[in-house]
């Protein structure tokens, strides 16, 4: 976080981070289509009622471990956020992200809340600060993509396309050292001297093999 110091000629006002709270929130949205009898009340056929539910998958508060540098006008800190995908106290296990054309949507967000307190200090003695009693709450959020752990679903080799030997009939087999069938030394052409009427309807199906 930057921009925490406002300097004047003789004094300065600065903000100190007191607490950081985070939580991972799951948002479930579904549209219930209306029957023909009640569709007119919702604006016509094909309309529905949208239902939305929120629940927290994980949360924590951090009150220390921040690095405050008023000379560089910034506060730095790191934290770890996680959620238990298999056991959530309310509402069962966590759901993966879903966005379906039928109106079903499940999304997740990371919500951050930072509590900052204002201090006043003299430019001659910036280390001697006095709290002013003012405080602010900064709130922001980030989109998350929640999915299953790797290796919990279908193996990758079961999802790959079929191989040639698994599909019948397979492609022709060519030996590495053998020339193609249309090479000059393996293919010859001769004039047919027989009666064409003897071939009958098979004359249109003649082909080289």
Can you offer a commentary on this structure?
The protein is an all-beta fold. Helices cover 2% and strands 40% of the residues. Strands 1, 2, 3, 6, 7 and 8 form a six-stranded antiparallel β-sheet that branches. The chain is elongated.
Concise structural overview:
With 209 residues, this protein is mainly β. The chain has one helix at 156-159, and strands spanning 5-7, 11-33, 48-62, 67-69, 74-76, 98-99, 105-122, 129-144. Helices cover 2% and strands 40% of the residues.
Itemize the secondary structure elements and their pairings.
Elements: E1 5-7, E2 11-33, E3 48-62, E4 67-69, E5 74-76, E6 98-99, E7 105-122, E8 129-144, H1 156-159
Antiparallel strand pairs: 1-2, 2-3, 2-7, 4-5, 6-7, 7-8
Strand content: 35-45%
> What characterizes the major β-sheet?
6 strands, antiparallel
Number of strands: 8
Q: What is the arithmetic mean of pLDDT?
A: 78
Structural class call reads mainly beta
**Helical residue percent?**
under 10%
Low-confidence segments? none
Give, in order, the helices and strands.
Answer: EEEEEEEEH
Number of helical stretches of at least 4 residues: 1
Q: Specify the overall morphology.
A: elongated
For the record, give the distance between the C-alpha atoms at the N and C termini, rounded to a whole number.
77 Å
Radius of gyration (Å): 36 Å
Summary keywords:
mainly beta, two-stranded antiparallel sheet, elongated, 1 helix, 209 residues, six-stranded antiparallel sheet, 40% strand, single chain
């Amino acid at each position: 976080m930057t921009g925490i110091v406002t300097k004047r000629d003789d004094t300065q006002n600065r903000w100190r981070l007191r607490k950081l709270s985070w939580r991972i929130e799951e948002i479930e949205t579904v549209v219930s289509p209306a029957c023909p009898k009640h569709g007119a009340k919702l604006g016509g056929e094909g309309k529905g009622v949208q239902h939305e539910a929120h629940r927290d998958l994980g949360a924590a508060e951090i009150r220390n471990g921040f690095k405050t540098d008023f000379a560089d006008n910034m506060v730095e800190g790191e934290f770890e956020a996680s959620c238990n995908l298999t056991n959530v106290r309310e509402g069962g296990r966590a759901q993966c992200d879903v966005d379906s054309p039928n109106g079903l949507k499940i999304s997740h967000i990371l919500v951050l809340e930072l509590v900052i307190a204002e201090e006043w200090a003299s430019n001659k003695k910036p280390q001697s600060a006095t709290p002013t009693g003012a405080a602010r709450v900064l709130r922001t959020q980030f989109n998350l993509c929640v999915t299953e752990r790797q290796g919990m679903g279908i193996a990758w080799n079961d999802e790959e396309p079929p191989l040639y030997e698994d599909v019948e009939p397979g492609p022709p087999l060519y030996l590495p050292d053998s020339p193609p069938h249309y090479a000059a030394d393996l293919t010859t052409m001769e004039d047919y001297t027989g009666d064409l009427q003897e071939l009958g309807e098979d004359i249109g199906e003649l082909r080289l093999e």
